[in-house]
Amino acid sequence: MSFFDKIFGGKNDELEEKHQWNSIESEEDLMKAIDNSYRHKIGIFKHSTSCFISKTVLRNFEKKIKQSENKEVVEYLYYLDLLAFRPISNKIAEDFGVRHESPQFLVIENGVVVNHASHNNISLSQIL
């Protein structure tokens, strides 16, 4: 592990945490997530894996999930790697009329974005 990984966390740290998310890696995954929003509010975290700010916000968000008394919220959280799946990110921005930012968290209920935030304004309370 490099010096910077010890301070800022490395790729392995990110992979360890990501297991709690439902991944969006295709338009089919996105459609399933939106379909789920008709049963329960869902959250989509759009993350840039190369951005220090995005990584920091993601880690802080994941800490809040672990501390939350509402453990079932995890099954309604989705993760989108912006660099690997940029066309899906663009589709989300276009379909929901929400300008792309990174990091970004969108809360969707009944197929409609009911809340969204970026950077340090991202909070677990948006979906609870």
Automatic annotation (TrEMBL):
InterPro entries: BrxC (IPR022551). Gene3D superfamilies: Glutaredoxin (3.40.30.10). Pfam families: BrxC. NCBIfam families: B_thiol_YtxJ. This is Bacillithiol system redox-active protein YtxJ. It comes from Chryseobacterium oryzae. The gene is ytxJ.
